[in-house]
Structure formats: structure tokens, C-alpha cells
Amino acid sequence: MNKPSLHNQITFNLSLLLICSTPALYALSTDKNQDIEIESNSAYLDDSKNISIYTGEVVVVQGSMRITGDKMTIFYTNENELDKIIVEGRPATFRQLPDKTDIYDEAEALVMEYYESRNLIVLDGQARVKQGERRLIADHVEYDTELSQVRAKSEKSTPDYNTDGTTTNDDTRVKLIIPGKKDDAVPEN
């Protein structure tokens, strides 16, 4: 039995990763039917090591989904199944349009990792997630795609302070912004 080529597996597994398992995002339902386009300054595919590496202004587009980074590495098991994908950037970015809205869900981090067997997506280093008006900012975010659980943490438990009492870095703690309810009623006078 012939082993499927790594290039064919990249297309299939990248599609599954990017469309089916994006954290708390509901992709545009037609995205999975669109072609996957990967652009980079260079590509390295090694079937013997079960790895493919794209470097230099990496852009992945499928329908409304777009991922950018400086480097994307895809690892496979010996059975040629997707093991993990790592996208690195300054920052690496993700953007996708959910069904029934015209507002994109977005994420960014210095490193974005997806672990197929663990159903885990990790945003590491200056992580930011935006869904509509909701925001999550942390140094490290883990999302369990099977259990729909999010864990966020920061490198420092307390911020550093300047001499005037202001903090030197607003991102030293986990920050979640949940917009208040909008009241459409006109207040009475």
C-alpha cells in the first residue's frame, strides 16, 4: 500500500485544522469547500521526516479564513496523520468570518500551536483573541477544542510599577473584556 504524499496530507489536514477546530469560533460554513492557498518565500517538504516548513511572509487563505506568520511548521506521525502545526510570527495572526455575521473573529500571538491528538490550540506570547466586542489578552492561552475550555495566564502575577505608580506593562495580567448589555430603550425624564 502506498503512503499518501505529505503534500496531499498537508492540504487535507490543514483544512481540517483551520476550519473545524478554531477556538470558540464558528467558521463561515462555506470556507471548508474553498481551495486552500499557501504562499511563502520558501517551502521545505520532507516525507522521510514527516515535516513541512514554510518560511518568509507565510499567508494561508481558505475562504474567509486567513493566517499569517513568519514560519509555519507542520508535523506528522509515522502513520502520516497530522500531529501538530506551529505558526510563528511578530505576531502570527488568524482571522475568520463566522456564519451570520459580518464581524471577523481574530487572534494573534507570537506562537500559535495546534495539537491534533490533544484537541488543543495554544497561543503563546502576547496572545490576543477578539470575538465581536469580546477581548481576551494574556501571555498564554490554551483552548481545548473538545471540551470548549479556555485557560489563560500571564508570565507575571503582579505588574511592575513606575515611580509615578503606573504599570510598566498593561499585559502583565490576564484581561477579559466583556461588553455590557446595550439598552435600546429611551430613558424617561
Structure in words:
This protein is mostly beta strands and 189 residues long. It has a single domain, classed as Lipopolysaccharide (LPS) transport protein A like domain (lipopolysaccharide transport protein A fold, Sandwich), CATH 2.60.450.10. It contains one helix and ten strands. Strands 1, 2, 3, 4, 5, 6, 7, 8, 9 and 10 form a ten-stranded antiparallel beta sheet that branches. A hairpin with a 4-residue loop joins β8 (134-144) and β9. The longest helix is centred in the N-terminal third of the chain and has 15 residues, at 6-20. The termini are far apart.
What is the alpha-carbon Rg in Å? Answer: 19 Å
Low-confidence stretches: 6-26
Percent of residues in beta strands?
Answer: over 45%
Tally of contiguous helical segments:
1
List the helices and strands in order.
Answer: HEEEEEEEEEE
Number of self-contained structural domains: 1
CATH-defined architecture: Sandwich
- Within CATH, the superfamily carries the name Lipopolysaccharide (LPS) transport protein A like domain
Largest sheet, in brief, is: 10 strands, antiparallel
- Span between termini: 79 Å
CATH topology: lipopolysaccharide transport protein A fold
Portion of residues within helices: under 10%
Which class in CATH terms?
Answer: Mainly Beta
**What's the shape?**
globular
Mean pLDDT: 78
Tally of DSSP β-strands: 10
Structural class per helix/strand content?
A: mainly beta
